[in-house]
Every structure is written in C-alpha cells, then in structure tokens.
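Fold these two proteins, one after the other.
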Amino acid sequence: MGRNLTHDRFATLAFERKVAAPVATLYAAWTSPAARAVWASPAPGVTVEFLESDARVGGREVSLCKDEGQPDIRVEAGWLDLLPEARTVGYEVVAQEGARQSAALVTADFTDEGGGSRIAVTVQLSSLAQDMSEGYRQGFDAGMANLGAVAERTMLIQRVIKAPVPLVWGAWMNADSLPKWWGPDGFSCKTSRIDLRQGGEWVFDMIGPDGTVFPNHHKYGAVVPERRLDYNLHWGENGPKHADAWASFDDLGGSTKVTLGMVMATAKEYHEAKGFGAVELGLQTLGKLAKAVGAE
C-alpha cells in the first residue's frame, strides 16, 4: 500500500509488497523487459506499448500508456544502478501531448523472507504540471499488485556455461543448431518453419522419448544480439499462449550465465508445470546447450 510522505508538488511515496516467490524471481520480474510488459498496465482496458527496453545500467526504457479516448502517456525511464537481487535505482519522466508532467527517482529494495520475498519502492516525485502524487500512488499500487501476481507465476531457470557469450548466443540463434539441442534429455524437434529474428517464429513439434508429440509455436519479440531475446510460447501453431518468455546471456569473464524466464499465463499453469518437473526439464535443456558448445 502506498503512502504520501509530503503534500506539495515534491512528494515522497513509499510502497511495499510481500510476494510468495524467491527474491531472485521477484527481482527478475521487476527488471526483465518481457515480464515488465506483462505487469505494467495499471488498470484493465489500459495497454502499455514498449518502444525501447534495455535493462542494464545506463539503459533506457520508453513506453506508451494507452487508454481509449485519452491522449497517450509517454514514459521515459532509465536504470541508474542495478544490484542484482538487492536494489535498483532509476528515473522516469512522464509526458502527455509533448508536455512533461512529472519526473521521479525510483528506488526498489529487495529482501529475502524465508522462501518468499519483499519489495520496497520509494518514489521521489517532482510534479512539473498538476500535482501527480495521487496518480502515482494509484499507478504504483496497481503495478505492485500486478508485479506480485506475475512473480508468483514466473519460472526462472539458470545455468552457467563455460563458454563465451558469442558462442552460446550463436548456438541459440542458429536455425540449424537450435533444433538439435532444444528440449530435455531424450527429446527431439521436428521443424515446420524457423525464422530467428525479431518478429519471426519457430513452428515445431517436440517429440518425447516415447514418441509423444508436443506441438509448439515460438513467436519472437525483441532480439538484442548477445544479450537477450523475448518470445511467446504457444500450444501449437497459433494456439493458446501459455507463457511470455525470455532468455538472457550475461558475460562472466569467459563464461556465460544463461537465464531462461517464463511468465506462465495463469497460476494454474505455473503449478502444473512445476508439478511435472518443468524446472528440472529446463535445466536438462540448458545442459544440452552446454554440450552443443563443447562446454561439457
């Protein structure tokens, strides 16, 4: 719940939320562009379109908040400091019809709470036109609730691969190599079509060790070379979406930390996936990637 600590055009707003997810998952949901796109809308009927998104120190995020019948609200934000799983500091400037409405410094602190986690956000706000504090309070209250719900259905799978980023990225973003290693141990892929670029897609069947066929359709969003790719997972070609996903690649001085994140469409799908061992199967998939680049 948010509270306003001053009452003039300069305001400090504070928000806290406890989340039933590990702190690493909560931090990823807060910072990862694919996850932010899921929880960013402050209200039903309002859509948020991301024009730019670069979650690193010095990176910028530009979005348009669209509400039918109202002028678009443009938000330009930037990351000033990122301390993984502990703290982020950033700024945001809100404008409407070309006029700046507000500027703010946003600090988020993350703490581990025994299986769960907590986020505490402080917004130091300067209203440049009308008083924006109430709008910020409502927006962040809604956003924090959305964030919590998204974090609680986000699956995070990570592995450090002893190979440089360009090699690991190349194995992932190569139409010949990706189908050869994708999937858990014993699974194979049969591709209908594959186009690994922003706006592209991969339509394929994943075939289990017993011959069971699992139709898949990946639709690619942002592709930032050697850093990240975002994509949607669908049950079969143009079937129901079951996850908003991303893969990120962090340079660890010759090794690569690969993070595979998935925001499942519903809490029910998340718990079902956890129940049949999706995390362990995902780790097997990243193990096959390591073998593909000669790291095992």
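Now the second one:
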Amino acid sequence: MAGGRCSWPGGVGRVVVGLIVASGALLNETARAVEPPGNPQHVVVYREPGRFAGWPANHGIWIWGDEILVGFSRGYYKDRGQFHHIDKEKPEEFLLARSTDGGATWNVEEPQPPGALAGTRGMRHGLLPPGMPDEHPTKLETPMDFSAPGFALTIRMENKDSGVSRFYYSTDRGHAWRGPYQFPLLGQKGVMARTDYLASGSRECLAFLTASKPDEKEGRPFCARTTDGGLSWTFLSYIGPEPRGYAIMPSSLRLSPTDLITTIRVLDPPRSAIDAYASTDDGRSWSLLSTPEPDAGEGNPPSLTRLHDGRLCLIYGERKPPFSILARLSSDRGRTWTAPIVLRGAGGRDIGYARSVVRPDGKVVAVYYFHDRADGPTRYVAATIWSPMKP
C-alpha cells in the first residue's frame, strides 16, 4: 500500500531486492517534458461547486486488490491569492473516497457524529479533524497489528503552529477507525505528520515525519520506528541536513530488508526541488541519492511508488507555468530519472499533493487535487489512471 505501505514482507506488488548506491545524480534540467503513451483516463473523485477539496498527500492512500481508499480535506472555496484557496474561517472536514473498480468510479464517505457506532469505544466511521466535540487524543493502550488484512493507518498534524500530531487506524479497510491517539514528540520541538509509513511485520513499522527546526518552523524530515505495535516510538534518524527553508512531506519505499528510498519536498532558497535519499541500513542513516525534480516552481510533495517491473514512479504537481501533474520514472532504483511525463495540464498553481498506487494489472492510479479553466472557483479531487511506458 502507498502512503502507508506494507512492502516487506508481504507487501502489495513486486518487491525489488537490491543495494541502493548513493550517487547524487541530477537529471539534466534541460530535458523536455514528454506526453505519456496511450490515453490516460482522468476521473473525478469528488467535486462540488464552490467547494475546496484537496491534499490527499496529507491523509494517505491504501489499496487492497481493486479496492482503493484515499483521504482528503473538504472546505469552502475562497480566493486567497498565492495561498491555498480554502476559507480558513469555515469548517474543514476530513473525508474518504473509496473505489472498488480500480479507480474508475468513487464514492465519498463522510464522518459520522461521535457515538454513531454504539458499543465500539474509541471507534469512528471516518476521521474527525481537531476541535470536534468528544475529540481528544489519548495514549494507545492496545498494540496495532500492521499485518492485519484490512489494516490502514493515517498520521496527521493538528496544525503547523501546534507541532502536535495524532493517528488513527483501521482493521476493516477504513470503514471504522480507532483513535485519535497521541503521537509522541520524540525529543523534537514539534512533529508535523502527514501519512507515510512502511510496515515490516505485525508489530514493526517505520514512520516518515517532519520535525520542527530550532526556530520552531517546519521542518526537517526524520524517521521513527515502533517494534511494539505503536505503543511506543523511537527516533531513528534525520533525513538530510537541516535546510535554511524546509524539507518536508516524505514519500517512501522499502526495496529490501535493509534498503529504503524516500523522496522529499524541499524549499531551500534558491532551490525548490524534490530530492531522493537512500538508506542501506534500514533507516538508521541516509545519503542524498539524486534530485528527481530540480525545479518544482513553488514546490509540491512527491508520491513515490514501484511498478510491477521494478521501476520507480514519481508523481507530483508542478507549480510553475504551464502548471501540470507530472510523472518521472527510474530504472536504476532512483539514481537517475526520465524527463517529466505530462499526465495532465492544469488551470493554475493550486494543484497536486498526489498519492498513487499500482493496480494488480500494473496500471498506476494517481489521486490529487486539481482545477482547470472551465471549472471556475472550485478545487476538486481527481484521479488519473495510466500505463507507464515500458523501458
């Protein structure tokens, strides 16, 4: 699964065993974007006039065969200039969208009021944002089973100012959720979590998070581990040096029992890039591997997944003209990358935050938020289904 994935052992899709060599290779910045082969299928996941729907990367995506579940935020549209066009003075909701046909059609699932699931203490249908009645994070007392067939975990920060994060988990493919539970600070000034984890057994899991810097601003990515089903977490390592700006929102894969790769959204003036880091010791240390995207405009988080033939696939939004949803492929475990592949042109900068999965038939399903010139003042969640070109 992606954006939580259980990749070793028993992960979805083909596991690639091999050593990552940190070469620091850069893609040629003059490489021109290319159109994808065939005709990518674009579908609407959720759209409602006058609404803002966005940020799947913050919530997570999970896949069980042809069943896909993705989280996203819904609010009200408001033109805020160079910011996300969501009205901060109106409520924001956390919703789920589910497809049972590989992403072709979607149904939105809305949270139910507290107590809707009578007799199931600590469980809710859906995910409630901070500040809801009867919504107080508590300490996890029963360990999670990361190997449960319908397991899903989402880890979210309350907001950028609080530096506090919480998590929910489900064992029935996201129909009911336990939580919220407190995520520890692990010696950091703050922890700004978005959902990215790799489970490697019934009780062991790595979480990829962002810490506050000494100035209490976001952030520096790091890796944490639990070996007791989430009852306790330990700080494992920082990923990369502390930036002058920020390095946030990891998207990670396990390539073997010891080899990991993660991609990071970086704004380190004058750079606005996506960097890839490699670990050959199961997350204890990291080295710069490559820079898949040297210029992402205003920046956008990456979504990293692995194709059935072993290649890596990176999907992200480009926040500079001509504004697009892009993909890049790597045949050498992230050392070098293809020129950007244009999956879809957009109407402006308020796009991206993708999460992606690979279906059993090998097609990639990328979910992101989007707007186009014909849509007017609406931000909606869309998906693109496509077949990456063969090497």
